[in-house]
Structures are given as structure tokens and as C-alpha cells.
Amino acid sequence: MTQHLSAAAMPHVPQFQQLTLQGADAEKFLQGQLTCDVTKLGLSYQAAAIGNLKGRIEFGIWIKKQAEQHYDVIISTDCSASLQAHLKKYGAFSKFTTSEPIAIYPCVLDDMPTFSHQDTYNTPENTQAWMHSSLAHGNYWIVAATQGEFQPQELRLHQRGGMDYDKGCYLGQEVIARIYFKSAPKAFLHYVQGSGNVPAAGEKLDKIQVVNAIADDQNIQGFKALVVARPEHLAESELTILELPTALQADVARPK
């Protein structure tokens, strides 16, 4: 039987906000920032990232094109202020406006993790369901503790349509492209089950780094998590590897 935990019993409950970018230069600006191809966005949320100069994810986001020159961006609430500062710094000479952040709620629709503005989804049960669904689908979320920790390929973002290697330059693109074309991440995203307390985002379990985790609703003494690890280190651990969706089971290296 599934247990419905209160917010107090869920120590790592995520919260999210939405920012809206509108204006004549919104698309051009975002194209020079995001890992995905902004010209291909539609009305469905696309996982994407803004990297830093080291090629690591500074802001993990979801984005959709609401209308012409109108883009909605979702980010973890604890990263919202730093994203706004980033947009102000890099967009100072571009013609677009950024809205004040508003709350948006994680939910599961048609068995997929997504977001809604409807207050009815603002419950611990819906957030818990979203977290479980997100872990099972490899839908990681970056929080303040994991900003700058992971490369996009390590999190399999390219296998989720969140990266485009032909779109041109963006922040961190040179490092990201070099890894993709000349090597491959040795550690990458896995979905696992473990025992003990729920680890925090960014916590290291020996040589394995946690991305996100939640209490296992089938085992109160255990947890499920998305982690970045080398396969050999996972094999040496006590964690059990669970299946990710088929698209995320492929080799993270570039197809030869």
C-alpha cells in the first residue's frame, strides 16, 4: 500500500517557480544561453539547461514557447533569484522583459511528470507522486546544492532532447561539445534503490553522487534516487540498479 507522507516527513520536498521572458530579442537571447535549440520549442515543457564556463549545469530548467516572443521557464525556487540575476547580467543589452516569479506546482498527468498552476496540485501527495515519477523517468531537478555539479551528458540531457550540438554557441558549449565529440562521461545517470536514510541532493555515497532522492514508498527504511556514478562503482556498492526508460538506457557516448 502506498504511503502518503506529510511535508514534514519529506525532508527534500522540491518547490518551483515560473519566469516569463517576452520581447523581440527573447528567442535570440535564449538561443545563446540554453543547451537546447530554442527555435524548436513548442507548447510542451522541454528539459534544458544553462551551463557555466566549465560546461556544467548552472541552471536546470524546463522551458516552453507559449507564443511568439513569449517563453515560460520553470526552475527550482531556491535557484530562482540567481537565475534572475543571471538573466539581468547577460541580457542587459537585449530587448526582452522578465516577469516576477510565480509559483507553479509539480504534478503527474497521463503518467508523466509535469507542472500546473492549479492550486489543487499544491499538496504533499501530488509533490510526492511527481518526485517518484520524475525519478523513474530520469527527470532530475537541479537545486541550489547541485548548481555547477554535473555536466549535461552525465545527466543524459542529450537523450531527452535537451541538448542540440548543431545550434551554435552558448555558455559552456566548447567544453560540452569537446566531451561529446572527443570523449564520453565516465560517470552518468542511474536510477537506484538503497537502504537507510534519504540522502540529500549532491550528497556523495562513497564514489556515487546523488542528484535527487526520495523515501521509498514500499520500504520506509529505504530510498530511491537518481545518481551519477561509474558503472563499476555501482557494481561495488549495495545499491540496486532500477530501469530507466528505454531512451535513457542507451550509451551516453556519441554514436559512432
From TrEMBL:
Superkingdom in the source lineage: Bacteria
Signal peptide: none
Keywords from the UniProt entry: Methyltransferase, Transferase
InterPro entries: YgfZ/GCV_T_CS (IPR017703), YgfZ/GcvT (IPR045179)
Keyword Methyltransferase among record annotations: yes
Gene Ontology annotations of biological process type: iron-sulfur cluster assembly; methylation
Single GO MF descriptor: methyltransferase activity
UniProt protein name: Aminomethyltransferase
Organism of provenance: Psychrobacter urativorans
